[in-house]
């Protein structure tokens, strides 16, 4: 039930090639992260849609291997 | 599957504000659920807290229903507002208060 920061970064970058991505390991346990993502792909989307896009890019890991990912999404 | 969707639809249509959460508003079992529950309490909002830990069917069902992989999940007037991050951001920006006011909750 853990996932490396590099793995999250890689998946996010695949989903959002143009994005500025900032990830913090909140507890140092590979399980609680915060991510800030700025991408042009968020343009015109609601916050819910933006977060759904991020979860989709994580391919089912959210809520499973990845227990907690506090998200901030912004248009670029 | 269809049954659980109907059940969830009933819950969110019959309550102005619904929080699907781990634990209860009185005793949250997860920090994220507690955060949203506390925001609603601070705003003096009457809400219905649904403990997903008490019902495995709802626990999975609400994730599929909302296309959202985590709990808590906040619904206002049948509309999915978001999880902890969004609820917190909207509260801090005063947007949540606005939605509640518009709906006279």
UniProtKB/TrEMBL annotation, chain A:
InterPro entries: BolA (IPR002634), BolA-like_sf (IPR036065), BolA/IbaG_stress_morph_reg (IPR050961). Belongs to the BolA/IbaG family. This is BolA family transcriptional regulator. It comes from Candidatus Fonsibacter lacus. The lineage of its organism: Bacteria, Pseudomonadati, Pseudomonadota, Alphaproteobacteria, Candidatus Pelagibacterales.
């Amino acid at each position: 039930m853990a996932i490396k920061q590099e793995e999250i970064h890689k998946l996010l970058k695949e989903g959002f090639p143009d994005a500025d991505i900032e990830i913090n390991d909140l507890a140092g346990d590979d399980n609680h992260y915060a991510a800030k993502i700025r991408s042009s792909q968020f343009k015109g989307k609601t916050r819910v849609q933006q977060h759904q896009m991020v979860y989709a890019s994580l391919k089912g890991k959210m809520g499973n291997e990845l227990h907690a990912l506090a998200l901030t999404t912004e248009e670029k | 599957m269809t049954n659980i969707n109907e059940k969830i639809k009933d819950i969110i249509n019959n309550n102005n504000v619904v929080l699907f959460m781990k634990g209860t508003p009185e005793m949250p079992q997860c920090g994220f659920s507690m955060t949203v529950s506390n925001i609603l309490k601070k705003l003096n909002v009457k809400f219905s807290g649904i403990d997903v830990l008490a019902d495995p069917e709802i626990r999975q069902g609400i994730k599929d229903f909302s296309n959202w992989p985590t709990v808590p999940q906040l619904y206002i007037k049948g509309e999915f507002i978001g999880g902890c991050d969004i609820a917190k951001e909207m509260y801090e920006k005063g947007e949540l208060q606005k939605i509640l006011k518009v709906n006279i909750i």
